Amino acid sequence: MEGQRLLQVSEVKLTYQPKVKASERYYIAHSEDAYKLLKEHCYDESTLQYKEYFKVILLNQSKRVLGVTNISEGGITETSADVRLILQAALLANAPAIILSHNHPSGNIFPSGIDKDLTRRIIEAAKLMDIQVLDHIIITSDTYYSFTDEGMLNR
Fold first, then answer.
1. Which of 132, 54, 120 is nearest to 90 (CA)?
2. Long-range contacts for 126-131 (Cβ within 8 Å, ≥24 apart)?
3. Which of 23, 47, 123, 129 is deepest in the core (most CB within 10 A)?
4. Where are the alpha helices (DSSP H) in the chain?
């Protein structure tokens, strides 16, 4: 009996109990909508210039927000975003689309080579599961950069 318990696979469990009607959910039509949602409700203005955070907006098929999840919290110049955790969150939320986001405490809105590579890896992995990466938004205290608006997403 003890041996069988030791061989059992651990699993993540999700209970899907929406607290908001689909029609009342925040709608993302453009990058500016995502930026406003992130800036006003998801990032703490008092720490936006302190250290990097990586967050993912989980969307339903109609581009309505199912939720926003924190993937990582890092240091002054970087944070580690695990592709597996990002896709796990999307799968558990039953989200067919996601928007990636992180902040740059320096105030520089332009993506680094690491930002571009990570985005490419997430897009490739998400395609295998029919999850669409709609954008990657880099935010600062003043403005934002949208990979989609700048033609940086290869769909």
1. 132
2. 126/87, 126/90, 126/98, 129/87, 129/90, 129/91, 130/96, 131/87, 131/90, 131/91, 131/95, 131/96, 131/97, 131/98
3. 123
4. 2-6, 31-37, 83-92, 113-128
43 or 125, which is more confident: 125
Instruction: Sort residue 105 into left (φ over 0), alpha (ψ -120 to 50) or beta.
Output: alpha
Question: In Å, how far are 20, 55, 57, 61, 151 from 71, measured between CA atoms?
Answer: 23, 5, 10, 22, 25
53 touches 79 (CB < 8 A) = yes
What pTM was estimated for this model as a whole?
A: 0.85
Laid out side by side, the sheet with 144-146 consists of: 65-73, 53-59, 97-103, 132-139, 144-146
Instruction: Please give the CATH superfamily to which domain 42-143 belongs.
Output: Cytidine Deaminase, domain 2 (3.40.140.10)
Tell me the sheet residues that pair with 55: 70, 101
Could you report the per-residue pLDDT of 63-79, keeping only the tens digit for each?
A: 999 999 999 877 777 78
- The CA distance from 152 to 16, in Å, is 33
